[in-house]
Amino acid sequence: MLSRLSRNSLPRNAIRASSKATRQARRTFVQPSGADRASVVDVPSTYQDDNLYTPRPDMLGFRLETPQREGSVMEKARPIYLDMQATTPVDPRVLDAMLPYFADQYGNPHSRTHAYGWEAEKAVEDARKNVADLIGADPKDIVFTSGATETNNMAIKGVARFHKDKKRHIITTQTEHKCVLDSCRKLQEEGFDVTYLPVQQNGIVDLAELEKAIRPDTSLVSIMTVNNETGVIQPIKEIGALVRKHRGVYFHTDAAQAAGKIPVDVNEANVDLMSISGHKIYGPKGVGAAYVRRRPRVRLEPIINGGGQERGLRSGTLPTALIVGMGEAARIAKLEMARDHARVKELSDRLLKGINSQVDHVIRNGDSSGYAGCVNLSFAYVEGESLLMALKDIALSSGSACTSASLEPSYVLRALGAAEDMAHSSLRFGIGRFTTEAEVDFVVQKLVATVQKLRDMSPLWEMVQEGIDINTIDWSQH
């Protein structure tokens, strides 16, 4: 591979040739998507043995074959992907925009003395505008980061530490992403006071409880826009208006699961800080953005120090290719949001109808009017991990990808009041831009059969079928 060779050992024309070959290979492998799904064509014989400079087809496009019969998924393609809250595939149009900045236009965007730096800087600023347009912001308010986790840390710790001499109280909810909760716990170790608001059974925060929780020494309220496990949409406009009434209190929202999927406007919602992730909107991993309001100015302490890039809030050389990818993903998301949302809603309804018409004792976790692309269901009398293992043809999650390795039931579902057994039996279905009707139908067919099979092996299910109310049984006597 080129990365293993000494750059000095390659003639300059060979490097240029590699760039040319890469662009030609991409054009050969990846068909322009437009409104259609991405597809990969057969590899020409010209490139079969050329592994020095030519990327493999699976590095450049998507293999999205739809299974036609049971057992065909693992034989013909990878499992059907329904885990869009964990990550999304890179849209081919995004990849197309990124490629030149890996090989040709590789300048440092902070180099102001030559054309390489100028063209990289322009690409970054164009991407910044696209991200800003997605959330109704001024481009100057956008700060690029490595992702939503860093942005959440920067917003929460940054505001708290800057105002620590006068204000040492923060408010969040019990259902936030783990990086938000862990940031708050870290601040508690530093002597800050944190209020973790409970949520109602539908997952939505009680505004009256939020109002009561705000104190004279409160510096920040951090409440996510769309929950990553349940799809619950918080009323951020109402929250923003409530927080704005209290002078000196900032409102931060983690919008990693919302931006690009539902309309979000930072000015309408009175948002002071917002976190966005590139790989949640069909962009690359490793890049995100922070919206940090300048008027009125939000003051925060940087968590990364160095060259003072990004208004001094996030030092470090910007990854031009990743930022270009995120910018293009944001542009496409805004352009196609209405169509994507309608399509996702249609597929979500199809999934729910197919499951509910054939399986009893299924509960949807969270508010039913939440984001349609995130469907969290609990299947009574079935253990979630067993269900996941049995559904090897489908890529699903039993909760957040960041915490799914834990055997503990989801803290988000427990906060909603779900019983431990129902929290253990939950599955999250993530539907996105490239999901098809045929894939949803296959998932329904496979899921229904698997749930029935597992229930047939459950003694509890047998008791329920016999009409026994297991809730009345005193298990301590057995």
The largest sheet, given as strand count, sense and whether it forms a barrel, is: 7 strands, mixed
Extended strand count: 12
Beta-strand proportion: 5-15%
Briefly, what CATH class of the largest domain?
Alpha Beta
Number of domains: 2
Record the strand order, biggest sheet. Answer: 2-8-7-6-5-3-4
Tertiary shape = globular
Gyration radius, rounded: 24 Å
Task: State the separation between the terminal residues, measured CA to CA.
Answer: 64 Å
The share of residues in helices is 25-40%
What are the SSEs and their pairings?
Layout: H1 12-29, H2 45-48, H3 57-60, H4 72-76, E1 80-81, H5 92-98, H6 100-103, H7 115-135, E2 142-145, H8 148-162, E3 169-173, H9 178-189, E4 193-197, H10 207-213, E5 218-222, H11 236-244, E6 250-254, E7 273-277, E8 288-292, H12 320-356, E9 362-364, E10 374-379, H13 384-390, E11 394-395, H14 411-415, H15 420-424, E12 426-430, H16 437-456, H17 459-465
Parallel strand pairs: 1-11, 3-4, 3-5, 5-6, 6-7
Antiparallel strand pairs: 2-8, 7-8, 9-10, 10-12
Helix pairs in contact: 5-12, 7-12, 8-9, 12-16
